Amino acid sequence: MQGGGCGAFAAVALNLMNRTGTADYAVTGTWSSKAAKEAAKYGKVNLVFPKADKPGSIPDQKTWSMDPNASYVYYCDNETVDGVEFPYIPETNGIPLVSDMSSSIMTKKVDVSKFGIIFGGAQKNIGPAGVVVVIIREDLLGNAMKVCPSVFDFTHIIKENSIHNTPATFSVYVMEKVLQWIKKSGGVDAMQKQSEEKERLLYGTIKQSNSFYHCPIDERVRSRINIPFRVGGKNGNESLEAKFLEEAEKLKMYQLKGHRSVGGIRASLYNAVTLEDVQSLVKFMIEFQKQHS
Ligand code: PMP
């Protein structure tokens, strides 16, 4: 579908909220927060735990206050900006589970049968921006609100075989190439194995740096994909971080700057980033630490 991840924030609510008029949201960072705000336009949103000022952990599911009347339970599998990833699939006792997998789709195996809806914006691991993949359980179709635009109505889109209007053809074409590449490279199994090797290498380097590099995220929920860290101690040294980025660019390592809302550094280890790329990054990090500590 079109509309990207943010389009899906609205589409999920427009298609499911009508069931009871309320929905449960687990807000663990930037993107689930935006999704909850969008959904609140269409019904009552219940936050299953209070929104943290600084994301960095996920409260134990035993402590969540879930609404037994919720139309669906929503969470973001991997918070791209904040570097928090769910290490488990939440239990919802039969209520449809919705997951934003924009930044983790195709990086690990997922039991699709556990979900009501999975969606993922393509631009991280499956192709160019502008397309979003939506997987919906058939029995959830047919619940869209009357005001739901046809371009966002999952039932209508399926009926029209995903060509209700002109699709983002070039993006879909490239996506097919990327999916063939994943298949040829050993499929999602191979992507997951590589992802685990990459994160082990980078977190290992951070851990062994004597706090020169510091990752603020609770170890139990650290993302394998988006790894935020500070340079020069726990609170980061901004001038050292600027130098880090400048020297990394000289070695052709780009886009390592943390999101503007978080600061510091963020390494995004999407499928297209190879193990060799991460080896180059940690080699540079070790060298940089030697020169600046
Ligand atoms: N969800 C997540 C987890 C994301 O990382 C992003 C984009 N970075 C979005 C949603 C929004 O996607 P889009 O920009 O395609 O609307």
From TrEMBL:
Pfam families, alphabetically? Answer: Aminotran_5
Q: Which GO terms describe its cellular component?
A: cytoplasm
Domain of life, per the record?
Answer: Eukaryota
Q: A GO term (biological process) for this protein?
A: L-serine biosynthetic process
Pathway linked to the protein: Amino-acid biosynthesis; L-serine biosynthesis; L-serine from 3-phospho-D-glycerate: step 2/3
EC number(s) on record?
2.6.1.52
Task: List the molecular function annotations (GO) for this entry.
Answer: O-phospho-L-serine:2-oxoglutarate aminotransferase activity; pyridoxal phosphate binding
Say yes or no: keyword Amino-acid biosynthesis present. Answer: yes
- List each copy of the Aminotransferase class V domain by range: 2-281
Q: Which UniProt keywords apply?
A: Amino-acid biosynthesis, Aminotransferase, Pyridoxal phosphate, Serine biosynthesis, Transferase
Give the required cofactors. pyridoxal 5'-phosphate
Q: Which reaction does it catalyse?
A: 4-(phosphooxy)-L-threonine + 2-oxoglutarate = (R)-3-hydroxy-2-oxo-4-phosphooxybutanoate + L-glutamate; O-phospho-L-serine + 2-oxoglutarate = 3-phosphooxypyruvate + L-glutamate
Checking NCBIfam families in the record gives: PRK05355.1
Q: Which PANTHER family match?
A: PHOSPHOSERINE AMINOTRANSFERASE
Hey, which family's this protein in? Belongs to the class-V pyridoxal-phosphate-dependent aminotransferase family. SerC subfamily.
Protein name in the entry: phosphoserine transaminase
